[in-house]
Description:
The protein is α/β, with parallel strands linked by helices. The protein has 8 helices and 5 strands. It has helices spanning 8-15, 22-36, 49-61, 67-80, 89-106, 127-130, 134-145, 157-163; strands at residues 4-6, 45-48, 84-85, 149-151, 171-173.
Amino acid sequence: xxxxxxxxxxxxxxxxxxxxxxxxxxxxxxxxxxxxxxxxxxxxxxxxxxxxxxxxxxxxxxxxxxxxxxxxxxxxxxxxxxxxxxxxxxxxxxxxxxxxxxxxxxxxxxxxxxxxxxxxxxxxxxxxxxxxxxxxxxxxxxxxxxxxxxxxxxxxxxxxxxxxxxxxxxxxxxxxxxxxxxxxx
Length: 185
């Protein structure tokens, strides 16, 4: 049974009844729960500690903080996603593989010199150079390493592209699209 790793946007859409994506995400959560009823082992909805960090960061840099709304949001996250998913050594290996593939394909030419020693590649290319969000790469690596479905509205174009050729699949669902939640085998 595959679990589902929800990214920051998906959680916000699920919580924020005013945003236009709320109805679709809420309906997909309900549909997934209905699909899981007959299953002996139920899929879990999980939140990465990386996502929790993004949420905490957003609360701390908000231009007009609303402590009551922030508290309500964190209460929602804790109640709906009570099992924060830690970054493991498996995710670190998947991250390294994904980032290496991105580096080999998208790093500026001078950084891809095969004669460089590994210690010279400590920070060979920025996330901007690779066309990614660093946290998206960590969350995708967690999903891949643990055979989870990543639920996101982010395009992650380059991450998806390089993940196609890897042994561990990157399964993604976008729950802002109605009727898109499914339980893959």
